[in-house]
Amino acid sequence: MSDYEGVEDTLFIPLTARVNVSKKFPEYFYDEKALEMENLIKGKRIEKKSSEYTMVANVARSYNLDEMAQKFIDGHGKCNIVNLGVGLETSYYRMDRKDSLFYEVDLPEVIELRERYFEVGENEKFIKGDLFKLEWCDELDAALPTLMIVSGVFQYFHEEDILEFIGNVKNIFEDCELIFDATNKFGIKYCNFYVKRTGNKSALMHFYIEDANEFARKADCQLIECRGFYKDALRILDKKIGLYAKISMKVADKRNNAMILHLKI
Q1: Cα 161 from Cα 154, distance rounded (Å)
Q2: Among 117, 188, 213, 233, fewest CB within 10 Å belongs to which?
Q3: Is residue 188 scored above 90 in pLDDT?
Q4: CATH topology of domain 7-264
Q5: DSSP three-state, residue 91
Q6: With the CA atoms of 58, 154, 79 and 115 taken in that order, what torsion angle do they form, in degrees rounded to the nearest 10?
Q7: How confident is the model at residue 187 (pLDDT cuts 50, 70, 90)?
Q8: At 20, which helix (H) or strand (E)?
Q9: How many CB atoms lie within 10 A of CB 32?
Q10: What angle do CA 132, 138, 139 make, to 5 degrees?
Q11: What is the spatial distance between Cα 175 and Cα 223, in angstroms, rounded to a whole number?
Q12: Pairing, β 222-228 against β 80-84
């Protein structure tokens, strides 16, 4: 079985979360484009098998990645924003894009699915390709400041794959940063349990990080930031989420069960 087999089925998990949280907690996260796509998730078992915590967890990842990407855009002039393994992500519509150029990269069958539901926007390009093979780099100006966003993708591979990818990127881009989500060993077990619960038994996850500084050392990169998922969610939704979700979020941040790394490559 290839590493990609079954992974496409997970495309609808974050979309389901963005729709549900946008409706229930718009003061924390609101995704108008996702709400326009609500019909795509109707009748799927994902919503029934998802808890309030897993819904907020998915959206908290997007919330933090959005904030970090916006900071990068605000701090640069013309720049590249590259969503690797973009799936049905709608971050293009949530950003104040300014002079940035958006590149949405995924496997051919995923981009073909995306093309059914999205029009290509201004200063946006869809690219069919394997993120690890790096042919997609030919489609953009590698001399521009570049931010690569990898959301919910690296977990399906192995540490050696990720380190090789980062090493190859170093040789192509002059000024590049990478933001991606990761879990620790406990978190990866929980994620695999959840994905199986939603009906997908083939998209198992492998990659996890126990120490962000150690991983940055292995990758020969500068660790700009490592942050938990839930600081703002806990503050904004303090009185609105259930006790189980609140406790789970606090524990996850305290134990680094879910984190976002920001590396200078």
Answers
A1: 9
A2: 213
A3: no
A4: Rossmann fold (3.40.50)
A5: helix
A6: -70
A7: confident
A8: helix 12-24
A9: 11
A10: 105
A11: 15
A12: unpaired
pLDDT digits (tens, 9 = 90+) for 70-96: 999 999 999 999 999 999 999 999 999
CB 145 within 8 A of CB 80: yes
Q: 104 - beta bridge partners? A: 83, 126
Closest of 21, 62, 25 to residue 41, by C-alpha: 21
Q: What is the mean pLDDT of residues 7-22?
A: 84
Q: Which residue has the tokens 């939603």?
A: 198
Return the minimum-mean-pLDDT range out of 2-16, 134-148, 183-197, 204-218.
2-16
pLDDT of residue 7: 43
C-alpha distances in Å from residue 262, one per residue of 31, 130, 148, 155, 219: 24, 22, 10, 16, 12
Structure tokens at 216: 């940055």
62 is written with which tokens? Answer: 């997007």
Q: Minimal CA–CA distance to 58: which of 46, 72, 70?
A: 46
Which residue has tokens 């989500």?
A: 181
Answer whether 0.85 is exceeded by the pTM. yes
**Assigned token pair, 31:** 């995704």
Answer yes or no: are the C-beta atoms of 129 and 150 closer than 8 Å. no
How many Å apart are CA 265 and CA 262, to the nearest integer?
9
* Cα end-to-end span (Å), the chain: 31
| Domain boundaries of the chain, sorted by first residue | 7-264
Q: What is the mean pLDDT of residues 147-160?
A: 94
Backbone dihedral angles phi then psi of residue 126, each to the nearest 5 degrees: -90, 135
> For residue 175, how many other CB atoms are within 10 A of its CB?
15
Q: What is the pLDDT of residues 81-139, one digit of tens each?
A: 999 999 999 999 999 999 999 999 999 999 999 999 999 999 999 999 999 999 999 99
Which residue type is seen at 92?
Y
